[in-house]
UniProtKB/TrEMBL annotation:
Coiled coil: none annotated. This is 11-beta-hydroxysteroid dehydrogenase-like 6. InterPro entries: NAD(P)-bd_dom_sf, Sc_DH/Rdtase_CS, SDR_fam. Keywords: Membrane, NADP, Oxidoreductase, Signal-anchor, Transmembrane, Transmembrane helix. It is found in: Membrane. It comes from the Eukaryota. It is a single-pass type II membrane protein. It comes from Capsicum annuum. The chain crosses the membrane at residues 15-34. One of its GO terms (cellular component) is cytosol.
């Protein structure tokens, strides 16, 4: 038996890569053509969300806030969730003013399973249905793994970014099946990219991408799933709001500059417009800005080169402060910050309640 298994593996190792490569070359043009036709069809017969019910987590700021505004302009009824009550109420008021016929806000911490259950229950109690679930809540730990004071201080990255999405999805699925609804998972390009200092954020987003890809296979056509992988988008993250090694949320714009350097930050309104269109089309994936997909190709084909570049660019020499990393030096020397960062990103002020 062991001989047979070894023989089968040797045959697969020898011939399958050649067969798969040949098949890829021959079928890729047809696949891309059919995919383009399907995109055109979905663009013509896009979903009208007027009157439909949309739940958005992490709705008090950033992408979540502006997605609430996008859905409001389309006439959707909204259930907005976040931990910051006052900020959430302000977003709800603006969404109503922009055209949503009904908006309710739910003060909730998605890292708590009971809050996620209550959130979906509130949506059903108030509106009797659920059409879209936008899973957006997230935090970003920023530090070298070795600098972590207590290893459980990094737990919020998984509790909020990953489990928060899992919990809300679990309670939403029965209701989404009834309406053939959709899940819009706001993950991150960081799920594919090995950027230093955000190992826990990268891991949580990679887990999220894998979870929703697998869920898409399990659910089939019962529920549509759009996986969004934003690059750098105007938000509290790009203002420099990070989780410290001590487990506290603080704004550190110096370390923000080290980490993001001269990478352009996309205005949030442009990002959320694209997400809204993509969700209504029923796309499987969306990357904003689109040029970030180029980086995925480099990670796939040249992983060693990417690793070397990331280490050289983001990490200074031994016993040197992070501010001496080439990434920070490049930003300071070129003076590009005022051109590649939106004005809001230059302010350290964030919503506190």
């Amino acid at each position: 038996m062991e001989f047979v298994l070894d023989l089968i593996n040797k045959i697969l190792n020898t011939y399958l890569p050649h067969i798969a490569t040949t098949a890829l070359i021959h079928f890729m043009p047809l696949y891309l053509f059919l995919k383009f036709l399907h995109f055109i069809y979905r663009s013509i017969f896009t979903e009208n969300v007027a009157g439909k019910v949309v739940v958005i987590t992490g709705a008090s700021s950033g992408i979540g806030e502006h997605l609430a505004y996008e859905y409001a302009k389309k006439g959707a009824r909204l259930v907005l969730a976040a931990r910051r009550h006052k900020s959430l109420e302000q977003v709800a008021d603006m969404a109503y003013w922009l055209g949503s016929p009904d908006v309710i806000s739910v003060n909730a911490d998605v890292s708590k399973v009971e809050d996620c259950q209550r959130l979906i229950a509130e949506a059903i109690r108030n509106f009797g249905r659920l059409d879209h679930l936008v899973s957006n809540a997230a935090v970003t730990p920023l530090y070298m793994f070795e600098d972590l004071v207590e290893v459980n201080n990094a737990a919020p990255a998984m509790d909020i970014n990953f489990w928060g999405a899992v919990y809300t999805t679990h309670f939403a699925i029965p209701h989404l099946k009834e309406t053939k609804g959709k899940i819009i998972a706001i993950t991150s390009s960081a799920g594919y990219l090995p950027a230093a200092r955000i190992s826990f954020y990268n891991a949580s987003k990679a887990a999220l991408i894998s979870f929703f890809e697998t869920l898409r296979v399990e659910l089939g056509t019962q529920i549509g799933i759009t996986i969004v992988t934003p690059g750098l988008v105007e938000s509290e993250l790009t203002k420099g709001k990070f989780l410290t090694p001590e487990g506290k949320l603080e704004v550190d714009q110096v370390m923000r500059d080290v980490e993001m350097s001269v990478t352009p930050i996309l205005p949030v309104e442009k990002c959320t417009r694209s997400i809204g269109r993509s969700a209504c089309r029923g796309d499987n994936y969306l990357t904003e800005p689109p040029w970030f997909k180029t980086l995925f190709i480099y990670v796939l084909f040249f992983p060693e080169v990417v690793d070397l570049f990331e280490r050289w660019f983001l990490i200074p020499g031994p016993r040197k402060p992070a501010t001496e990393a080439p990434s920070k030096i490049l930003l300071d020397v070129t003076g590009l910050q005022e051109y590649v960062y939106p004005p809001s990103a230059l302010s350290p002020h964030i919503k506190v309640d």
